Amino acid sequence: MYILHRPAAERVSAAVFDFDGTVSTLRCGWEEVMEPLMAETLCAVSPEPEESVRKRVAAYINESTGIQTIFQMQWLAGEVARLGGRARDPWEYKAEYNRRLMRRVDEKKARLASGQEKAEQYLIAGVRELLCDLRERGTRIYAASGTDHPDVAAEAGALGVYALFDELRGAPPHETGCSKEAVLRELISDRGLPGTQIAVIGDGKVEIALGKQAGCRTLGIASDEARRRGVNPVKVRRLREAGADAICGDFTERTEILAFLGF
């Protein structure tokens, strides 16, 4: 665990977790679905070589990790229009992306439901134990995700972690509001919690940046989603740039993580 900035040792009262890549790996490889969709769409209207288009798409996906899918599809529609093409509605692009992605996710969920695979094969190492530790200490636990709410709720249920969260919130269907920003706003403005008593935990720069702006303690999870443990150096760089207070690859160092959270 890397401590980059040592915040006050005040005990956190609430923890806001990102879901995909932080808790769950059911969507591991989503980039392999989004990148071809975007590249195919842009190559159909772009005079650039296919390799250049793919590089630009990959760079955008890396930069935008953590935002809601609809915003990524708005970028795609904007690029089509900029290149002189006739863009489809961003919601149509999102529907096609979800259709392709959910084929993969549904196959994994089916194997879980049949008992062929166990939930731990799709959870970041140590996360279930940490969630239980936090609940035992009276911490309110939230999950906030850019994934559509019905899907993230179903996936949390399939992994057996739904009940460990006090509230789980995904992206509202056909709305563009940010669930991560909304949860933080409600905790601070509506419930009166100071940012110093809130931890934001995630593998994307979006939630880390939001947490920093709100004065929260931020723990970046540089997860290697394929292995479910260890550190992904690409994510380390991304989380450092976002200003994370601390970074770890998984949740196996629970004693150190709990100490960072003030316990």
Which keywords apply here?
263 residues; Rossmann fold; 10 helices; 7 strands
Q: Within the largest sheet, what's the order of strands?
A: 1-7-6-5-2-3-4
Assigned CATH class of the largest domain: Alpha Beta
Biggest pleated sheet: 7 strands, mixed
- Specify the CATH homologous superfamily of the largest domain: HAD superfamily/HAD-like
Based on secondary structure, the structural category is alpha/beta
Q: Care to count the β-strands?
A: 7
- Overall tally of structural domains: 2
Output the CATH topology of the largest domain: Rossmann fold
Examine the secondary-structure arrangement and name the CATH architecture of the largest domain: 3-Layer(aba) Sandwich
The coarse overall form would be: globular
What is the rounded distance between the termini? 16 Å
Point out poorly predicted stretches: none
Radius of gyration using CA atoms only: 19 Å
Fraction of residues in helix: 40-55%
Give the H and E element order. Answer: EEHHHHHEHEHEHEHEH
Determine the number of helices (DSSP H or I, runs of at least 4 residues).
10
Task: Tell me what you see in this structure.
The protein folds into 2 domains: 2-25 and 123-260, Rossmann fold (3-Layer(aba) Sandwich); 30-114, no CATH class. It contains 10 helices and 7 strands. It has helices at 30-43, 50-64, 69-82, 90-114, 127-136, 149-158, 179-190, 205-213, 233-242, 254-260, and strands spanning 2-3, 14-17, 140-148, 167-171, 198-202, 217-221, 246-248. β5, α8 and β6 form a beta-alpha-beta unit. α1 crosses α2 and α3 packs antiparallel against α4 (90-114). The mean pLDDT is 93.
